[in-house]
Write a structure and sequence with these properties.
alpha/beta, globular, about 300 residues, eight-stranded mixed β-sheet
């Protein structure tokens, strides 16, 4: 059987996509390849300089590309609301919740949330909810959330979502990635109950060269550790072009099931990935959803139970 690659992406002409964190890594590749196939792509990025550079690079490679940078800081809920208010389209075919942070020293978002939980989960929960009317208005729309195989390190602690009882960076990261999967699980359930054909799915890139791995040690000024992590990344990580394939597959391939989890398989081909049982726990998904609504102030209207 032929290996699935970016060349297998169906024609995306007439479709509108939002890709968060699309200034670099797998987000950039995802946005570029969707634009290559004809999609109108909104590059939703925190850093204006890098976001505009990404827009320029895609346009230089693909002169006919319909791409536009728009500012979005997932660590600031007012920015998320501003982005949603300024989204000037009646329909949204594809929302790729890709942006994220990894294993940072303890930090808080503008709204006081632990940074990894706040950016990786709460920011995207709010964004998806605020763009829900456009998603529901678009037949066959998809929401694709990028999780991680490292979600298997820890389930969420519903009594301590913001790691106030103790902070361990990798456990906090794993919990935020479990939260991504529980969000997709509960969103898919609610969409089905509402009779919507919008598909919510999750992916992970494997050990991909995204630049996230060195961010934490760089913030702490640990030069030696940064060199070691960077060496491992260059020796072992597969390129962003490969890491983006599971996301592109979940976003565009026919017949992707709701609440699926796609990752790289033996030949780096996208396919079903194993996920921890707790990432499909109905009770945990429902409780996390309620907590996320309270923390963000965003409710899902037509999908409320």
């Amino acid at each position: 059987m032929k290996r699935w690659t970016a060349s297998d992406i169906p024609d995306q002409s007439g479709r509108t996509a939002v890709v968060t964190g699309s200034n670099s890594g797998i987000g950039y590749v995802t946005a570029r390849e969707l634009a290559r196939r004809g999609a109108r792509v909104v590059l939703a990025c925190r850093n204006e300089t890098r976001g505009k550079e990404a827009e320029s690079h895609i346009r230089s490679e693909l002169p006919q590309a319909d791409v536009q940078f728009t500012h979005l800081d997932l660590a600031d809920l007012s920015s998320v609301r501003d982005f949603a208010r300024g989204f000037g389209h009646d329909r949204l075919d594809l929302l790729v919740n890709n942006a994220g942070v990894m294993a940072l020293p303890h930090r808080r978002t503008v709204d006081g949330f632990e940074m990894q939980f706040g950016v990786n989960h709460l920011g995207h929960f709010a964004l998806t909810g605020l763009l829900l009317p456009q998603l529901l208005a678009t037949s066959g729309a998809r929401v694709v959330s990028v999780s991680s195989a490292m979600h298997t390190l820890a389930t969420i602690d519903l009594r301590d979502l913001n790691s106030e009882r103790g902070y361990r960076r990798w456990i906090a990261y794993a919990r935020s990635k479990t939260a991504n999967l529980l969000f997709v699980h509960e969103l898919a359930r609610r969409l089905a109950q509402a009779g919507s054909d919008v598909v919510a799915a999750a992916t992970h890139p494997g050990y991909a060269d995204t630049g996230l791995h060195t961010a934490g040690v760089r913030m702490e000024g640990r030069k030696g550790a940064e060199r070691i992590v960077d060496l491992a990344r260059r020796r072992l990580a597969h390129p962003a072009e490969t890491g983006a394939l599971p996301t592109l597959y979940a976003a565009t391939a026919p017949g992707v099931p709701p609440d699926s989890f796609t990752g790289p398989r033996r030949r780096r081909e996208p396919g079903p990935a194993w996920r921890a049982p707790w990432s499909r726990n109905d009770a945990a998904g429902l409780r996390l959803w309620g907590a996320s609504e309270r923390l963000t102030g965003v409710t899902y209207g037509a999908l409320e139970l």
